[in-house]
Amino acid sequence: MEKTLKVDVVNAEESLFSGNAEFVALPGIEGELGILPGHTPLITLIRPGLVRIRKSAQDEEEIFVAGGVLEIQPFHVIVLADVAIRSKDLDEAKAKEAMEKAKAAAKTAASEIELAKVEAEIGMLAEQLRILQ
After folding, report:
1. Inter-CA distances, 31 with 10, 99, 104, 111, 131, Å
2. CB contact burial 9-37 (16+ within 10 A = b; e otherwise)
3. I want to staple 54 with a disulfide (CB 3.0 to 4.6 A). Which of 23, 33, 111, 132 is the partner?
4. 31: left (phi over 0), alpha (psi -120 to 50) or beta
5. pLDDT for position 37
């Protein structure tokens, strides 16, 4: 039996990670998921949070995702993220500034749809700030 998984994390613009891993953990819509080689096939939604990719005992990569879809095959994990940012590229000052702008936009939203979009952005930014602290 193989000891690693092929892992791909992509957003609409780029591939953020493509390689092998011993273990992957990420925030599923129903709770935290841990994925090892040989996992049962599954397709599910993911919520904002960190995808933790353990390449080896000493090497782990983290990518913030703001939601998306996860596909698990026994030896292949694909994360199709709405937004994905390498955790080392997250910027607390920018996230706080964006949060203030989003809160202001929520107060002036002209429709329920516009308000829902702004509230989703606020949720994503809140999770980024939680991770950064």
Report:
1. 21, 25, 31, 31, 17
2. bbbeeeebbeeebbbbbbbbeeeebebeb
3. 23
4. left
5. 96
Residues of the chain with pLDDT under 50: none
Question: What contacts 7, CB < 8 A, 6 or more positions away?
Answer: 17, 18, 19, 20, 21, 24, 53, 76, 77, 79
Type of residue at 106: A
Tens of pLDDT along 77-99? 999 998 888 877 777 767 777 77
Structure tokens at 2: 């193989």
Euclidean distance between CA atoms 79 and 99, whole angstroms: 25
What six digits make up the tokens of 88?
């080392």
Phi and psi angles of residue 36, each rounded to the nearest 5 degrees, phi first = -115, 165
| Separation of alpha carbons 128 and 133, rounded Å | 9
CB half-sphere exposure, 87, CA atoms < 13 A: 17
